[in-house]
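Researcher: Please translate sequence to structure tokens.
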Amino acid sequence: MSRLKPTVALAAVLTFVLISFPRAQTAQVNGFDIILRGGLVFDGTGAPGFRADVGIFKGHFAEIGDLRNRRAPIDIDVAGLYVTPGFINLHSHATPAGLSRAENMLTQGVTTEILNADGGGSADLTEQLSRLGSVPLAVNAGACIGFNVIWNEVVGPADRRPTTDDEARMRAKVQAGLEQGAWCVSAGLDYKPAYYARTEEVIRVLNTTRHARTNFTNHDRVTPETGFSSKAGIAETIQIAEAVGMVPVITHIKAAGRSQGTVPEITGMMSAATGRGAYTAADAYPYLAGQTSLAALIVPGWAQDGGRQAMLERFADPALRKKIIAEAEETMTARFGGAAGVYLPDTRQELVDIMREWQVTAGEAVLRLVEERNRTAILRFGIESDLVSVLKHPTTSIACDCGSSQGNATHPRYFGTYPRVLGRYVRESKALTWEDAIRKMTGLPAATIGMIDRGLLAPGMAADVTVFDPATIVDHATFDDPTRPSEGIRHVILNGQLALRDGKATGSGAGHALKRLPGMPSRPMTPAVARRLTLKAAASKALSLDVRQDAAARTATGTFRLTADSVASSFSRTGQSNSTIEMVEPGVLQVADRWASFTGRARLLPSNEPVALTVVVERSDPAKASGATATLFVDGVRRVEITIDPALVDIQPGTVRSKK
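Model: Translation complete:
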């Protein structure tokens, strides 16, 4: 990356930082690679659907409207079907092998997965993302940086207090992960050994993350000291994130066991935090049981101190065993309704049946099973009314707590989550509307983790698309048969290529390894109000920017034009002397605090080459000591960064007039 000397006319206004632009073949002007015809389009904003054709070109949405006189090599009639942005799973436990096929996710309509949930995964995201990018991916994949894996690397499996040096090392690892492209800092403070981290220690480890403007997603810590209170665990997640300036994300939000019926109090806490300026979000799956290892949430924390071998040695001590059994049974009663809440999927046995067969108590049965080997358990925790309440909460995204697998799942969420929401909670029970459920799978998770060019269906956005039949979509997987595929997802397009056609995976391998870059903040979705981004009173015609979107408009209006002979090489991909990029059809304008982003269809002049454009404007860039910035992405790749006099940048919601 090099910095060019600005021209005299621009010296007080702009400087350019260029990123090299590889040569590519000249594209067909105004062409399409794919047209989806006659579907009901839901754009991911929560707005009602509208009938339109969707034209896709070079991996991006090009035109949405009446394309009856246009043609494409792939032309699909989707009349009677719903066309939406691809679904985003922001809480993924995908395996590398699973990501190569991902049929269980594609048949749910998922196009993007965010890995390293619950604080796990790799602490070296450069290596992890490089590995992902080196092989064909069936879906897009990004990653969080995991607090748990970092705590375990530095502090180890024992319940001990980290030293000042330990905390500094952990801060450095978190910071490195964010710089390497992490979409969040994830944690599972309910899991050992991160369970041993005190609240103030977590805050100290994360206290340098404010500038990143990302999110802290946590499997809340439910402890005997709080009476196994879900509300207390969620309050801790909010406390940590608020203290370090991150967006709290209550992962697989629930009111479990004795906390059943307290969802109004929990969502009230979320709203109160948002009211204080700490926007708070959540994710949830549509089931009343979770999945984890049998020991993880049942065997008391002190008994797991030091790892599995130390735990087994405590099991062998008669006095300690008696104490562990008593506390394990109290945990099961408080969190899962007792032994009846525990199911062993690998042997398809209820814990109560094992107790009866062995003639032992619940706690003794658990310890014997754990002694044999590490086991997976299905743990029942909730009630339907609570689940409906969390699904309906406006900042709750749908996330499956699953991921791309090779077909070997033990929980039905791996094959059923998204169709279950659409089939059972939208079409059948009408707990959610179509438009809001789709928003919770697309635009909302994208904004929560900071994406700027996915999650919405508009010109310039990456062409990830899910097409489904609203009359038939439903899940079929059960706890006894967890790998039964869902039905109703007809087509999935991934980065402009068909990944699923007529319900069958194509093996396209079109997925990308996605990195979060500066200028991609976690944020609320842009509310349904008028908004505007303007570069005021510029001293030169080199940069012209005035983009507006009315509250009721599907897309923005306005202009963007950048002309500078000195930056011609940053645009040209054909060997011609392109020196201007001009937006010809705006997409959608998103705004947040001192930040805005818009997409659109543009052309390079004088060649008239069509491209997809994304622009991010920072009124106050936290990564810089002073100055505003505008960053241009062309066809999804970061190309130009411009430093702007902050006095010229106007970002606001307000009343505008739209031609749309």
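Researcher: Any highlights?
Model: Residues 318-336 form the longest helix (19 residues).
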